[in-house]
Please model this.
Amino acid sequence: MADVLSREDVLAALRQLAADLTAGADRLRELDAAIGDGDLGITVTIGFGAMCEALDDLADQDIATILQRSGMAFNRKAASTFGVLFATMMMRAAREARGLETLGLADIARMAQAAAEGVMERGKAQLGDKTLLDALVPAAQALQASAESGEALAPALRQASLVAADGVTATIDLRSKSGRSSWFADRSVGTQDPGATAIQMMLESLAAYAERMA
Amino acid sequence: MKKIINEPMDFVDEMLEGLLLAHGGQLKAAESDPRAIIRADAPVSGKVAILTGGGSGHLPVFLGYVGEGLADGCSVGNVFSSPSAETMYEATLATHGGAGCLYLYGHYSGDTMNFDMAAEMAAMDDIRVETVLVSDDVASAPPDQWQRRRGVGGLFFVYKIAGAAAAEGMDLDNVARVARAASQSVRSMGVALSPCTVPAAGVPTFTIGDAEMEIGMGIHGEAGVHRGPLETADSIATRLVDAVVNDLPFERGDRVAVLVNGLGATPPEELYILYRRVRHLLDEAGLVTYRSYVGEYATSLEMAGASVSLLRLDDELTRLLDAPARSPFFQQS
Model:
């Protein structure tokens, strides 16, 4: 069996990701209320709900269109900071997936890297600013390293999820430099970053999907 | 807080429905998106389209400045929260007249991210977009970092200038140039006397004592620079004018336009009492007041309070400020 995600896999993996993140919405809300404005839980619930509705209409589209439009659907209903950053990630990933009928590890690594660059550009944030980049950037690097060493898809995603979890843990001691939580910068020390946590949850969901596939 | 509403979740959509029923001759919603409000005659062929947007709760900001000699379209968000990139993109498609678009709005991170993304989507359709942000609230960052400041009442002046430039046929580079010139030349400072309540939240965004005021509070209740006992109108005017004049700084002999703006619950009478002292202070400082605007131009729901904005005018900005404009919320002939 080819070690790739098909169009159907992408649709199913996005549905699973939406379900997993919605199940974790309370946890995200609690983290965000501690250091931000507390709207991340509702953003995730509304946004992923809208994304699932959009997926129903995207069943016949190619992978790039599925990614682009489902990200836009999220942002349309939940245009908060996380909503626009999620849509940005999907849009940049979609650009890398243009014309592809399946996604291999090398494609996914390139998409993750493009997504991280999009977030840096859009949010004008860097690694270490206590944002979702602290999980996404090391995860993208891990995917790239796995692709170069010829790793299989499922273990590569698992490794990326573990690296992202380390990134989340490291945000506990960081002082927020970007976004709403930077207004409460000192209060932010001691709490893990909610955006980074959401990224880790997504990678966990994707890894679990790939493991079930394998 | 008592409000005349139905379901809090319907606040924005029912407001828009009423607005379009009342002013259908001047405004319409884009066919593709009910939250994209555009001029009834959009797209205006060959004219630079000016697009704005932001959260609801600040009327006439933002959509109140969609009209002739003003902006062409506005993406409308929920109360105090950014509209989506897609709504801004749909507003862009519905107003683009073949001469490019200027995105002109107040500096808030959620709006900036969504509108940058909309600009990126428009670029994929070969629509050229320039962006100018308004950052006039002197309370929100030091003078050497003025571009980090929030946009407040000074937005009105920049809409007026850029809208007139587009209406007289300037190309996109020049419309953006005069908008930047206006944005660099406008400064504002406000005072809040009472809080406001976001309908869906149901409780006030912040608290302030009955006998207190807060200088420099943001239009969503962001912390200001001074909280203390309520002072007289003359004393408040002095605080606001000093902060604004010393910031740019405005200098003796400068020609200026003045805006004394109510935040939602302060009556026009009080605004004129405030204007009276503001004008005395400007005269004493040797500033030449060319035009004055007094009323509600940028509000925060039912917040009580006011803001003072000053725009420094050169000959070009003066000509553009003088040009006619017409929207349901603002007319000048």
Summary: The radius of gyration of chain B is 19 Å. The first strand of chain B starts at residue 27 and ends at 30. The domain at 8-184 of chain B is CATH 3.40.50.10440 (Rossmann fold).
